[in-house]
Amino acid sequence: MRNVRDAWDYLTTGANWGGSEGMWHLLLQQLLLSVTAMLVAMAIGLTLALWLGHLGRAGFLAVNVTNIGRAVPTFALLAILVTLDHPGTAVFGPYGRAGLATLIALALFALPPIFTNAYVAMREIPDAVKESATGMGMTGSQRFWRVELPLGMPLVVSGLRLALVQVWATATIAALVAGPGLGTLITAGFYRTDYPKGIAAALVVAVVAFVLEVGGALAERAVDPNRKGTAMRTTPKGGRTPEHVGT
Amino acid sequence: MPVTLLVEDGISIQPSCYSRLVNKWYCADYLKDRHGDLTSALTQHLQITAWSLVLGIVIAFPLALLARRLPRLQGLVLGTSTMLYTIPSLALFPLLVPFTGITEKTVVIGLALYALTILVRSMLAGLTGVPEEVRESARGLGYGRLRLLVRVELPLALPVIMAGIRVATVSTVALTTVGTLVSYGGLGDLIRDGVQNDFKAELLAASVLCVVLAVVLDAVVVGIQWLVTPWTHGRGRAA
Questions:
Q1: Which of B13, B82, B102, B209 is the most exposed place for a label (fewest CB within 10 A)?
Q2: Which residue has the higher pLDDT, A86 or B7?
Q3: Of the CATH numbers 3.30.565.10, 3.40.47.10, 3.30.930.10, 1.10.3720.10, which one belongs to the domain with range A2-8+24-245?
Q4: Given CB atoms, is A217 within the 8 Å cutoff of chain B?
Q5: Pairwise pLDDT comparison (B136 vs A9), residue with the higher score
Q6: Does A233 have pLDDT greater than 70?
Q7: How far apart are CA A69 and CA A75, in angstroms?
Q8: Given CA atoms A207, B176, A64, A124 in this order, what sign does their dihedral have?
C-alpha cells in the first residue's frame, strides 16, 4: 500500500511532468505515435475495405486478417521488428527511440479491426436498400457516398475505436523493447525497483485509454444516422456486431 | 596423428551459429544446447495461461448467470468488463502489484481479468440465444431450474461459449509474454532477454514457440468442443 501512496506523490509532483524526460513529453510522444499509426492504417485499411466491401469481393480477407492478427503476440512482433537490421531502429525525430520500428508495428496492429469492421459495415447494408438506390438512378459512387457510407458509418467508427484503443495499448508495450512513450517509465520503474514511478505511469496510461474509449463511443453515437430525427426510421436491422469482433 | 589433431582443432574453433560473432536468426545448435531454457519457459507459459483461463471461466460463469437473471446488472457487468479491457496489459500489471507483489499471481490475475471480459460476453450471448420455446417446452416437461440449465440451455449455448473460450485462449497465450515486466512471462522472458542481448536465435525460437502454442491450444479447445457436442457430428447428421 505504501507503493500506492508513493505513486500518488509521484503524480502530484510537478517536476515529474516537465522536461524532456517528463510525463507530458512522453504522453504527447505516445499520442503522436498512436495517431500517426492510426492515420497510416486508415489510409490503407479503410480505403481497401470500403472499396472491396462496396464491390462485395474478397470476403475471406475480412475473416482471416483478424484471426492471424490475434495469434501473433504483439510483444514478439515488436521485438523482431526492433532487432531486424533496418534503419527503423534509430531515433526517429519526435517519435523518439526506435520510433519507426514501433510505428510500423502499430500500423500493422491497427489494420485488422479497421479492415474487418469497415468491410462488414459495407456488406451488412441490405440488398433492398442498395437496389432502391440504384432504382432511383444513383451511380455506383453516388450510392457509396450517399447511402452505403452513412449507413455503415457507426460500424466503421466502432472499428476505428477498437483500433485506437489497441494501438494505445501496443504503444505502451513497445517500451519493453526500446520503444518510446510512457511505457518507458513503467519498464524503467520496474527494472530499477522504483515501483511508485511505474505504478504512476501505468495509472496515466490507463486513464488515457479510458478517455480514448469514451471519446470513441461518443463519436460512434454521433455518426449514427438513426439518431438524427426521423430521416432514417426505416433502416433495416442494424449493423451492430459483438464488441470483441476485432480485439 | 598430428594431422588428425589439426583437423579436429579446426572443427572445434568454428564458432557456433548462436555465438555473438555469427548471431543467426535460426540456429539448430541453439535449440539443441539450450532446450532446457525453452522447455522451462514453455512450461511456465503454459501454466500461467492455463491458470488464467481456469480462473476466468470460474468467475465468468456465475457472473453471466447473474447478469442474465438481473437485467439491471447486465449493463454494469458488461460496462465494467469493457472498461477493464481497455487498460493496456503493461499498465494493468503494475496496478495489481501493490496487492499481489512481484509474483506469478499478478500475471495470472491480470490475464484472468482480460479473459473474463471475453468469456462473460460469449456466455451471456450463448445463454440468451436459447429460444424461449425450447425453455418453455422443457419447463412443460417438468424440468427444474438447475436441470433446465444443465440439460437444455448449456448444451445449446455451448458452441457460442466455446467460440469465446477459443478467442480467450489465443489472446491469453499472446498476452502472457507481457508478464515479463514482473519476470513471470514464460516465453516472454526469453523474448525480452533476446532483445536486450541482441540474441537473435533465442528471440525467434521463443516467438515461434509462442505462436505454435497458441495454434496448438486452439486446436485442443476445438477438440474438446468436438468431444462435448457429440450431437453436432457423427451418425445423427441425417436428422
A1: B13
A2: A86
A3: 1.10.3720.10
A4: no
A5: B136
A6: no
A7: 12
A8: negative
